[in-house]
Amino acid sequence: MDGRTVLIDVFCMDGAALYGQILKDATVVHERLPHSRYALDIPYIARESTAEEITTLRTAWTTGT
Length: 65
Fold this sequence. Notes:
The chain is an all-alpha fold. Helix content is 55%, strand content 0%.
């Protein structure tokens, strides 16, 4: 942690749409949320994804920078 305050809107963020876009083209999300290193931290991923899907999503997120 770097000491900055981070706000994650866990109740209103559309996890399915966000993660779908990351899988489709993560650069779009990186452009719209340039400092969002916490994009994969909303509960949707843990609740709705298998371990394999989470790995695929993380790979897409890190290679789409």
